[in-house]
Design brief:
Distance between the termini: 54 Å
Largest sheet: 8 strands, antiparallel
Number of strands: 56
Radius of gyration: 32 Å
Strand content: 25-35%
Helix content: 10-25%
Strand order of the largest sheet: 2-3-9-10-11-12-15-16
């Protein structure tokens, strides 16, 4: 029952608020998504498991079993293939294991254990070439397909050069070993041996058949049988024709063989998530319809506009239209501890405009806000097709959606929107009615595009244009961080309305993808990803080292599912944002790193998986998942090849994102093909359109040299224009008439373009920067959005500046002229932290004989064990939102989460109100009654409290305990102020994870996605009194998710004081919403 509840809670489809429901408290770490089948592979050295050969993923004597699925009939049936010929046929009711042996004059050989096996995966087809000493010089080739029109599969066996007698094939089929599959037997989500045969099969069927040249075997109704040659050839040709038709939708040819496999592989994976009516969440695990997330982008990008329209129509029929909003904000579910909205018709969330999770059902309450993604995909559909009749048909769907978003997520009408589980990575995100970048960006693009559509169909664009302008203005004023050059994750609605600056990748890529950024913002924001988001090297035996690296989604701690993962769709969407920002080389490098990680180094050839090998919690997990398929479609076609249709305005932008050293590349889709070639100083683009009405091509390219000798369109001289850009190259635009075939030729001349600062110089604040201006170039303007230039001079040969600003990575821009080219060029600098570092190491100068404990017994207001026993009911948002559950721990996916804090052993170690630590520091603690002074922005405790101090001291040692969570990471949760008698003071911020930790768990830190300062602070185990900088190791805490400290733990801080000054007091103040911060003991030295 518990597992079922957790799964339903994850999906957001299980209402647990009804009468009679039993609510079992959850303990941290017992979540279903904490399960990993990859622990044995953590930090293992990887190898290049598959190599590209034309369209094929090739491996020799590979070891992976049941990891490459073949799809056929748009049902849940699939044929699982392996690196060697052993198979499984999946149906939910009757999955089967299939294997073959070969009898020859040299003996009997299992075909999955021959001496040599070359396997190839070719977009929907798996083939094998086998040899073995027992074959006596003969060879066997096998090819297999899933049938395209019904559940089943076909194998073709070809035996060659078996000299003495025709070999005999022994075919066997049985039940599988694991009859209870959690995620349909998907990789990393079910045990790896799930599809093996049982040790003693109960349903084994086998038969021998002689191979005389070519043999065909059919799987039908989960049974094997042989076919006549004529039957086999007919089915073989039919299966291959269907496979080839799908695979040939997308053809890619580049100088990089690792990309040339991707066109057909992508088309086949996309076909695998199509069920005949809608795009599914996944082809294998999570094979279910969802109105949102990013799978549906694939339809239009891959030219399946008919499928796209079928999908959009199915979910338009799922929009609620006859349930007005009759119940006010807030509508939270009390049975789920107010963490999420109550499932009740007429509330703001479950009223007109809401789109339900299943097609053609508008009476089903789901949980996520999937509206945003669905509408964004629909708006892209209009860009691809330009179908105004369909715009008119869907206009009511769009306007109801926009009104619903406004009602629910911008009820205070400030132009910034709350995010209510509106992206894939939503399962532990909660913003408590905050102003959120990614949801605001989605709503900006939706309103802006709605205004454009309104003009086309004769509707009033004014309200949508006004709303878009309002959103963009508010984003720039409140969420853009000018001194840092990126958007904040969110701004609090509650409490001090603070800005949370530590943004996730979804914040950056959604803001750029939704067109909220100008070129300068886009460049700076992607630099934030470069410098602040954890990068994890992608390396392997057999792979040439080239600086490949993938990225985590955030730098937040502690871990929770979807909070800090290495997820392919997130990496690829970030790569898309690089292309959109003009940083093609960086986009290509990140994209290739992800392609290598999942498709060549991973266990499934050509896999569009969900979770990477480098993900700390799960490891490599899931195959052909909807989000990476949809995003990969976009990053390949719209990013790398830069195909950006705007059929509504009868034009198509081509903005290639090729690496600078490519001299050729081509792509073909059902809508358009183009081929790029470079010969010396001449670039040529051949464009062929297959749109119903040819669009006007607009070619946007980076200038290669300082002059253009000529531009020709279809051999006729043409003009070019310069477009404002900030990515480091002049961006040129060449327009052509809308014809089915267009050839654009550019001849370059003159010197290559100069870069002012190829490397990032390291400079002290108040230091000087000197850059040489190359001969032939000049600078006329400087744009300093981050205010790092105290003053500067521009001469003919040098640029000189004095630097100011906060330590860290920064960028300014210089307007450069060279030959015919004028462009903004970014200059990246790193400002060193030159502030005097502390001359002490914490707890390095403990002198027990000089320690005196501070008595603040009268101010103790709680027992430390109370922290998660309370109900935190106020203040709460007046609007429906996702928020912290009332017990002060958990999130909307786990609203009943709890943790037991037990200080009984610690209290037993207290004698005469004194606890003597193993460090030699005594603390005044209480054996009974209240033993902590809690502060919080919750009304349960005071926001701040001041403790009187006296005398002088060189150190204040503090024993503290309290709560924090991932939504309060890299921000001061609280602050300690030391007041001196002379009126001066000093402050120490309590920041997660640097010096503030959650009482109930140990941080997982691996130096990769999970990074924290070293040395870690001392923690005190409340149950045992043990003190350690690494309680995880001391207590043998394992895993990534949860890492529960039984009984909980406090934290010890060493605050250096000015011993020349008389002390007056210490103030503890909580700054973050949602947290409780307490002080148990103060000892002055």
């Amino acid at each position: 029952m518990k597992t079922t509840y957790l799964l339903l809670c994850l999906l957001g489809i299980g209402s647990v608020s009804g009468a009679g429901q039993t609510k079992q408290p959850q303990k941290i770490g017992d979540f279903i998504e904490s399960t990993s089948y990859n622990e044995h592979r953590r930090n293992a050295t990887r190898s290049l498991q598959y190599t590209p050969d034309g369209d094929d993923f090739v491996c020799i004597n590979g070891k992976n079993r049941f990891t490459r699925a073949l799809y056929g009939s748009h049902t849940a049936f699939r044929l699982e293939t392996s690196d060697q010929p052993v198979f499984a046929a999946y149906t939910k009711e009757n999955p089967k294991h299939i294997c073959f042996k070969l009898q020859t004059s040299g003996g009997t050989v299992a075909l999955d254990s021959t001496e040599h096996c070359e396997s190839r995966y070719t977009a929907g087809r798996r083939s094998y070439s086998l040899s073995d000493p027992a074959f006596g010089g003969g060879s066997l080739s096998i090819t297999t397909w899933a049938l395209p029109d019904k559940e089943g599969a076909i194998w073709q066996f070809n035996a060659r050069n078996f000299k003495e007698f025709h070999p005999v094939l022994l075919a066997s089929i049985s039940e599988i070993r694991n009859s209870k599959l959690n995620r349909n037997g998907d990789m990393g989500a079910d045990p790896a041996d799930s599809f093996e045969a049982p040790l003693q099969p109960q349903q084994l069927q086998s038969f021998p058949v002689q191979i005389d040249g070519t043999l065909y075997i059919l799987l039908e109704n989960q049974e094997l049988r042989t076919l006549t040659t004529a039957e086999g050839e007919n089915l073989f040709k039919k299966a291959e024709a269907a496979r080839s038709e799908t695979a040939s939708r997308i053809r890619i040819e580049t100088p990089d063989p690792y990309f040339n496999t991707l066109g057909g592989t992508l088309a086949m994976a996309a076909d695998g998530i199509w069920d005949g009516e809608v795009w599914l969440h996944g082809a294998i695990g999570w094979r279910m319809p969802l109105s949102g997330w990013r799978a549906a982008y694939t339809g239009d990008v891959l030219g399946w506009h008919d499928r796209a329209r079928t999908h959009f129509n199915a979910y338009a029929a799922s929009q609620v239209t006859e349930v007005p909003n009759t119940l006010p904000h807030p509508a939270q579910d009390s049975a789920l501890h107010l963490a999420r909205s109550v499932k009740k018709w007429g509330t703001p969330q479950y009223s007109n405009g809401y789109i339900c999770r299943n097609p053609h059902r508008n009476n089903q309450m789901h949980h996520y806000d999937m509206n945003l993604c669905y509408i964004d995909e629909l708006l892209w559909h209009f860009k691809w097709t330009g179908d105004l009749d369909y715009v008119r048909q869907m206009w009511p769907v769009i306007t109801r959606h926009l009104a619903w978003e406004k009602l629910n997520y911008d009820p205070d009408n400030d132009g910034l929107y709350d995010a209510y589980a509106c992206i894939w990575a939503s399962d532990a995100l909660y913003y408590n009615s905050g102003a959120v970048t990614h949801s605001s960006a989605y709503n900006y693009r939706a309103n802006k595009t709605a205004a454009q559509l309104a003009e086309k169909i004769g509707e009033d664009p004014t309200p949508y244009r006004n709303e878009a302008e309002k959103i963009l203005k508010a984003m720039n004023e409140r969420l853009w961080l000018p001194g840092k050059g990126h958007w904040a994750e969110y701004q609090d609605f509650m409490g001090h309305k603070r800005v949370h600056e530590s943004a996730a990748v979804w914040t950056i890529y959604h803001a750029i993808d939704s067109e909220t950024a100008n070129p300068f913002q886009a460049y700076q924001a992607t630099r934030y990803v470069d410098t602040a988001i954890p990068h994890i090297p992608v390396t392997a035996h057999g792979l040439k080292e080239n600086g490949y690296a993938t990225i985590a989604t955030t730098n937040w701690l502690p871990y929770s599912w979807s909070i800090n993962n290495v997820a392919f769709a997130e990496v690829m969407h970030t790569a898309l944002s690089y292309f959109q920002a003009g940083r093609a080389d960086a986009g290509y490098k990140l994209l290739k790193s992800s392609v290598l990680d999942g498709m060549y180094l991973g266990d499934s050839p050509g896999n569009f998986g969900q979770i990477s090998f480098y993900d700390a919690a799960r490891g490599e997990c899931y195959r052909d998942f909807g989000d990476p398929i949809g995003v990969a479609s976009r990053v390949l076609i719209q990013g790398l090849f830069g195909i950006l249709p705007d059929a509504l305005n009868k034009q198509i932008i081509l903005r290639p994102g090729f690496p600078a050293d490519w001299d050729k590349a081509s792509v073909s889709t059902p809508d358009i093909s183009y081929r790029f070639t470079r010969k010396e100083d001449t670039d040529t683009y051949h464009i062929t359109q297959r749109f119903q009405t040819p669009l006007h091509p607009v070619l946007q390219i980076n200038a290669r040299k300082e002059k253009i000798r000529s531009v020709k369109v279809n051999d006729v001289p043409a003009t070019w224009q310069s477009i404002e850009s900030a990515h480091g190259y002049p961006l040129l635009s060449i327009q052509a008439e809308g014809t089915s075939s267009t050839t654009i030729t550019i001849e370059w001349e003159g010197a290559p373009l100069h870069t002012l600062a190829a490397q990032e110089p390291v400079i002290a604040s108040n230091g000087k920067l000197a850059l040489q201006i190359p001969s032939g170039a000049s600078i006329s303007q400087v744009y300093d959005p981050q205010s790092v230039l105290a003053k500067h001079t521009m001469g003919a040969t040098a640029f000189n500046a004095q630097i100011k600003g906060e330590p860290g990575h920064h960028t300014f821009f210089v307007y450069t002229h060279q030959g015919e080219m004028d462009w903004w060029q970014p200059v990246n600098i790193y400002i060193e932290n030159t502030r005097k570092a502390p001359s002490y190491t914490d707890f390095a100068d403990i002198r027990p004989e000089k320690c005196r404990m501070v008595d603040f017994d009268r101010q103790l207001n709680a027992s430390v064990t109370d922290i998660y026993q309370n109900e935190y009911l106020s203040p709460r948002s007046p609007y429906t939102t996702l928020q912290l559950p009332t017990q002060g721990i958990g999130e909307w996916c786990h609203p009943l989460l709890t943790a037991t804090i037990d200080d009984s052993e610690l209290r037993s170690l207290v004698h005469h109100d004194t606890f003597q630590t193993s460090l030699g520091i005594p603390f005044r603690l209480k054996e009974k009654g209240n033993n902590i002074l809690f502060t919080s922005l919750w009304d349960n405790y005071p926001d701040s409290s001041t403790i009187s101090l006296s005398g002088t001291a060189s150190h204040a040692y503090l024993l503290m305990a309290g709560s924090t969570n991932h939504m309060q990471c890299h921000i001061a949760n609280g602050i300690i102020r030391i007041h001196y008698a002379d009126g001066t003071s000093q402050a120490t911020e309590l920041t997660n994870p640097d010096n503030w930790c959650p009482i109930e768990q140990d941080f997982y830190v691996d130096g990769k996605a999970f990074q924290a300062t070293a040395p870690r602070p001392y923690r005190l185990h409340l149950r045992s009194g043990k003190i350690s900088r690494d309680l995880g190791k001391e207590l043998n805490i394992t895993g990534v998710y949860g890492r529960e400290i039984e009984g909980g733990a406090g934290i010890l801080l060493d605050i250096p004081l000015d011993h020349s000054k008389e002390l007056k007091g210490l103030t503890l103040e909580t700054l973050s919403n949602d947290v409780v911060i307490g002080i148990m003991g103060i000892t002055l030295q």
